[in-house]
């Protein structure tokens, strides 16, 4: 059975702000597992500040009442689009020097940013249904299981994902086996994802948010990156996938503006 890949940055890699290891094995490992946990990819203090800002700016989404511009994705669990503005308009967040190279490696292209937002699990939320984020592109496993990775979901928690707050259960290898055989061929893993870590998943991977048994909301930042021909038309019928104003787009470095092709 495939296992969740775990990459921990070395002190030298942190110091230089870049990977110092051979990438071929990482590519092959992700092709097999469809999921990788990168430990310490972000500045922890920066994400803690974003957590405070998120609780202030998106306070209206932290109550049980449903919102017309936030998709309900489970019991007491909703998807909220975050505007790429102010502190959220930060290259470390949308073009992280450790994560973007992996995304480009795994998708074998200069993948662009398709969506940016959060999924927040309110206190008392139940386990989410097991799912993949997108149905098969061609409707049948016999075609889609053999395709290379076309999109990646990246999750970065604003509070630790664990047994109390809830985490994202993943079934490594489930992107590459028939849907009817996932439970038999793939084992569920429940990673602890600390603030500063990032979980990358093939868009076809089976996963599910687990229950939030704490007394506080559990927001995670998410981004999806994709080959330029792919656009998620399944999950964004209720809200925009990506929101950035012309003024904020001008703040994006010229070398990274291609990421916002959809905008």
Description:
With 263 residues, this protein is of the alpha+beta class. It has one domain (5-260): Jelly Rolls (Sandwich), CATH 2.60.120. The protein is 22% helix and 21% strand. The chain is built from eight helices and ten strands. The chain has helices at residues 11-16, 24-33, 44-57, 91-94, 99-107, 141-144, 182-185, 246-251; strands at 5-8, 35-39, 71-74, 77-81, 112-121, 151-157, 168-170, 198-202, 207-209, 218-226. The strands form two sheets. It has an eight-stranded mixed beta sheet. A hairpin with a 2-residue loop joins strand 3 (71-74) and strand 4. The longest helix has 14 residues, at 44-57. It is globular, with a radius of gyration of 17 Å. The chain starts with a strand and ends in a 12-residue tail after the last helix.
Show the helix and strand layout.
Blueprint lengths: L4 E4 L2 H6 L7 H10 L1 E5 L4 H14 L13 E4 L2 E5 L9 H4 L4 H9 L4 E10 L19 H4 L6 E7 L10 E3 L11 H4 L12 E5 L4 E3 L8 E9 L19 H6 L12
Parallel strand pairs: 1-2
Antiparallel strand pairs: 2-8, 3-4, 4-5, 5-10, 6-8, 6-10, 7-9
Short description:
By secondary structure, this protein is of the alpha+beta class.
């Amino acid at each position: 059975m495939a296992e969740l890949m775990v990459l921990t940055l070395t002190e030298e890699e942190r110091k230089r702000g870049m990977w110092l290891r051979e990438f071929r094995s990482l590519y092959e490992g992700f092709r097999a597992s469809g999921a990788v946990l990168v430990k310490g990819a972000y500045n922890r203090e920066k994400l803690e500040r974003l957590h405070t800002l998120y609780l202030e700016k998106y306070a209206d989404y932290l109550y049980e009442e449903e919102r017309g511009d936030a998709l309900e994705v489970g019991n007491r669990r909703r998807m909220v689009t975050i505007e790429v503005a102010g502190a959220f308009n930060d290259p470390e967040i949308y073009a992280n020097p450790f994560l973007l190279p992996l995304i480009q490696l795994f998708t074998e292209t200069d993948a662009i940013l398709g969506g940016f937002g959060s999924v927040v699990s309110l206190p008392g939320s139940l386990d989410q249904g097991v799912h993949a984020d997108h149905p098969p592109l061609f409707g049948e496993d016999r075609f889609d299981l053999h395709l290379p990775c076309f999109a990646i979901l990246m999750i970065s928690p604003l509070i630790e994902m664990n047994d109390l707050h809830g985490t994202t259960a993943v079934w490594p290898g489930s992107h590459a086996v028939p849907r009817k055989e996932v439970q038999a061929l793939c084992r569920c893993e429940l990673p602890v994802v600390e603030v500063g870590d990032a979980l990358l998943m093939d868009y076809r991977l089976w996963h599910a948010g687990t229950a939030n048994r704490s007394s506080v909301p559990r927001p995670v930042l998410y981004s999806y990156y994709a080959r330029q021909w792919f656009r998620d038309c399944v999950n964004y019928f209720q809200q925009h996938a990506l929101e950035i104003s012309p003024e904020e787009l001008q703040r994006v470095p010229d070398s990274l503006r291609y990421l916002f092709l959809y905008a």
